[in-house]
Amino acid sequence: MLRPGPRGSKGERVAAIVSESTLAMSQLLAVLLASEMAASALPAVLSAAFPWASSLPDDHLKAFAGELREAVVAELPERVERVLINWRAVGEVRAGTRTT
Question: Distance between CA 13 and CA 4 in Å, rounded?
């Protein structure tokens, strides 16, 4: 399936081919995270999915989870990417593996 992809070097959209299974996983995650019960588990599993998140304190993990949930439920890949980039930077700075 052809879907709008990331931006090119000049900021223009470029097409990306996304497999049906990847699209299905994305849709399933969006539906799961729309559920309060499923979303409540998100802060606890972020460190397993993103090792750099292990340096984040609980309040930061909850904020990260909230932002990521909102982006995923809204099905906005560019926003998901921005949330991940921003929080990875925070996690790496807190871990001492990155400077500001």
Answer: 7
* pLDDT the model gives residue 2: 41
Distance between CA atoms of residues 71 and 79, nearest Å: 6
Contact 57, 43 (CB under 8 A): no
Nearest-angstrom CA–CA distance, 71 and 81: 9
Other CB atoms closer than 10 Å to residue 68's CB: what's the count? 22
Averages of pLDDT over runs of 10 residues in the chain (100 residues) are 51 74 90 92 95 95 96 92 96 84
What are the boundaries of each domain within the chain? 2-95
- DSSP-assigned letter for residue 51: G
Residue-wise burial string across 6-43, b where 16 or more C-beta atoms lie within 10 A, e elsewhere: eeeeeeeeeeeeeeeeeeeebeebeebbeeeeebeebb
